[in-house]
Design brief:
The protein is an alpha+beta fold. The protein contains 4 helices and 3 strands; from the N terminus they run H-H-E-E-E-H-H. The radius of gyration is 21 Å and the shape is extended.
């Protein structure tokens, strides 16, 4: 509890916790365990289950959070097309980050830029 009061990166701040208790109405939960809330003024927010990372919000909940749609996404299994992939959060800077083959193979030869030389 003390850790939650002073650190926002672990979950939610103490102020958000109190605001959620007094003014928040629980709307739903996504497949990752993130909990979504709304108040009477139609303000919407999310309490992340683990690490606070906005890229962990699925596209359905993203649309709801940004008032693109007012329909609350359900956790019912939806029809997935063959080209659809499951949601992944942003992997930049992590072990699963995308690295082109050219960079991986030629790490010693790779330069960030080449200087321009007039001909």
């Amino acid at each position: 509890m003390i850790k939650q009061i002073f650190t926002w990166w672990n979950s939610q701040t103490f102020g958000t916790f109190l605001y959620t208790i007094f003014f928040g109405k629980f709307v739903g939960k996504d497949e990752f365990g993130n909990r979504y809330y709304q108040n009477k003024k139609n303000n919407r927010w999310v309490i992340y289950k683990d690490e606070i990372n906005a890229s962990k919000i699925t596209s359905d909940w993203f649309s709801w959070m940004h008032h693109t749609t007012d329909t609350i996404p359900s956790n019912k299994i939806k029809k997935k097309y063959s080209w659809q992939k499951p949601h992944q959060d942003n992997q930049t800077g992590g072990k699963k980050a995308y690295k082109p083959n050219k960079i991986i193979k030629n790490t010693k030869e790779f330069q960030k830029y080449e200087t321009w030389k007039p001909k």
